[in-house]
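Q: How would the structure tokens look for this protein?
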Amino acid sequence: MRGGMRKRNLEAIGLAGLALAAALLAGAWMGATDATAAESVIWMRIEANNFKDEAGHVKVNLPLSLIEVVVDSIDKRDFMSEFEEDHPSLNIPKMWREIRKMDVDEFITVESEKENIKVFKDRDFFRISITEAEFDEPNIEVKLPLELMDYVFEGRKNFDFQELVGRLRGHLPLTVVSAKHEGADVKIWLEEK
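A: Here is the predicted structure in token form.
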């Protein structure tokens, strides 16, 4: 029973990580412009492995330009207006500015027999780190550049693809999400080729 629950938790974390990465990346490319041919392509790569299952290996490789095309087909005004209606008192840009200027680097720490969770920022990244009891080091990590978070949460209605890519390029290659649990792992990363 416990193994099944942990497997579902890992799957949920993997899906949450995918959703988080997709949402941040998708939101960032609203109103994007074409990249110049002189610049190399940035790829979003996703790899999921379940070593207990013969068919448990999945790889996804997408150039950000393809994600841009998909995002351009979404009506962003409806998406944002629904979010604002559902959370009328939540001022995300203001909340992010407060987090960004805080001297405190560690925001949330939860320590228990089953797992240790830490939400923190360092000089360049906003991070979430989870270490389950059977691991000596973090087995689940989320890592987002502060520059990307700044850009997304500055309250912009329109995003410039070239500006966003410029903020990302200095951090590449970048592993955004990595998770390992009971013979399975998920990794989402960005790299330039």
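The mean pLDDT is 77.

The longest strand covers residues 42-50.

Upvote if useful.
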